[in-house]
Amino acid sequence: MQISENTVVSMHYTLTDDQGQQLDSSVGQEPLVFLSGAQNIIDGLDKALQGKASGEKLTVSVAPEDGYGEIHQELIQKVPAENFQGVDDIQVGMQFMAQTPGGQQPVTVIGVEEDGVMLDGNHPLAGKTLNFAVEIVEVREASEEELEHGHVHGEGGHQH
Fold first, then answer.
1. Residue 149 has what DSSP assignment?
2. Alpha-carbon dihedral sign for residues 156, 61, 134, 7
3. Sign, CA torsion 92/95/101/127
4. Which DSSP symbol is given to 157?
5. Any idea what DSSP says for residue 31?
6. Which has the closest alpha carbon to 46: 153, 130, 154, 156?
7. What are 18-27's pLDDT values in tens digits?
């Protein structure tokens, strides 16, 4: 069976950036299981997997606009250190949840300065080309319940 919208895909992957640094991998763990076409994974990878079958291996390069998007400068801002009450030692790389007009949003500390803390609300992989080495383990039809819920159930998927 080939991957198409509304099929359940089980795959192993290794994700690297353009410098070859490994960012994530499922190798040595359970494979990633997702419902194709349901926005369970980034669009660029899902589209590149269409038509592939069990046992296939491929490499996929996903541009930022098909991954986590470009970097939005308006999501980078300095806030007063007083906003971090109860945190004694703010370090670059720390992540917090910020209350925004649109609800809670994860932010990453990218700088600590005398007059405030620089925060970045972009996804950590925004602006990056993502390189995937993929091995398709299994492809199957999705159940009616999986289609209704928009995600995989059972082994490797969501449990209700």
1. H
2. positive
3. positive
4. S
5. P
6. 130
7. 999 999 999 9
Per-residue tokens: 156: 């490797």
* Domains defined for the chain, CATH in brackets: 7-68+126-149 (3.10.50.40), 73-120 (2.40.10.330)
How does DSSP assign 63-111, residue by residue? -GGGTT----GGGEEEE-GGGGTT-S---TT-EEEEEETTEEEEEEEEE
Report field, pTM of the whole predicted structure over 0.85: no
Burial of 19: CB neighbours in 10 Å, binned 0-12, 13-18, 19+: exposed
Q: What's the Cα-to-Cα distance from 71 to each of 6, 34, 42, rounded to whole Å?
A: 31, 26, 16
Residue type, 1: M
Measured between alpha carbons, how far is 143 from 160 in angstroms, rounded to an integer? 14
Q: Are 88 and 33 in contact (CB under 8 A)?
A: no
Using alpha carbons, list the distances in angstroms from residue 143 to 8, 59, 108, 139.
Answer: 9, 29, 38, 13
Task: Please give the Cα distance from 142 to 88 (Å, whole number).
Answer: 49
19 three-class SS: coil
Distance CA 18, CA 123 (A): 17
118-154, pLDDT tens digit by residue?
Answer: 999 999 999 999 999 999 999 999 999 999 999 998 7
- Cα separation, 84 vs 82, in Å, equals 5
